[in-house]
Design a protein that fits this description.
CATH architecture of the largest domain: 3-Layer(aba) Sandwich
Order of helices and strands: EHEEHEHEHEEHHEEEEEH
Number of domains: 2
CATH superfamily of the largest domain: NAD(P)-binding Rossmann-like Domain
Number of helices: 7
Oligomer: single chain
Structural class: alpha/beta
CATH topology of the largest domain: Rossmann fold
Length: 266
Amino acid sequence: MGKNDVTRIGLIGYGQIGAAVHGLIDANPAGGMEVVFIHDQDPSRLADVESDLALEDLGDFDSRSPDLVVEMAHPAVTREWGAAILQKTNYMFISVTALADAELESLLEETTREYGTRAFVPHGGVVGMDALLENRDVWESVDVVMKKNPKNVDCAAAGIDADSITEETCLYDGPTRGICPKFPRNVNTHAAIAYAGIGFDRTHSLLLVNPEWSDATIAIHARGPGLDLHVERVEGITGVTGASTPVSIYNTVQMIGSTGPGIHLR
């Protein structure tokens, strides 16, 4: 724990989610958390950040003595820095698609065991993750259906021109492990569901887009003997980020790092 029982938080990525999480931490000083550095690959995003918080070189993260580093940028951060961070401190990454790389998943797990640190996967936009996790040995099938406007999908890695899509189109239909490298910024929910449930190879992902849709929909259908879980969430979206995501990420950070008074729901 940091000085005076305050949890010292480092933030990687200062886009819509990162800026919101920073603001929410600062707005709750009684929560027992303090932001000690902010890093972004694009330094211009930190123009309005206090100079003593801006961390130009992520390699210097340990100089700020963080208790928890939170990634809110891209799975490439975990590929490049995840193990190095976990050698020094705890790490939470919202780009859960990084775990679709089985070798990276093993490396992160081995590093936590060797150095006594912890890695955290936030529930993000997943409603019912506790049920998926608690019954992971029971589920026979888990299906994830995501529906979005193509303008709210980053298609660059898949080599698809979103502007050319004029009607309802299926962009992916198959195992969750395959969708993660194609749409790494869009399907962290799929990855979290797979990790909490029956794995990246057995979980089935479907990504549908339609230029007429204004909301984002994520539906989960898990089936097992005597169990049938069906959850659907519909929400507004800005860019590739759902409206509820920033607050959800902050709440997870608070679950991990809050030292403030009160009754805490974990």
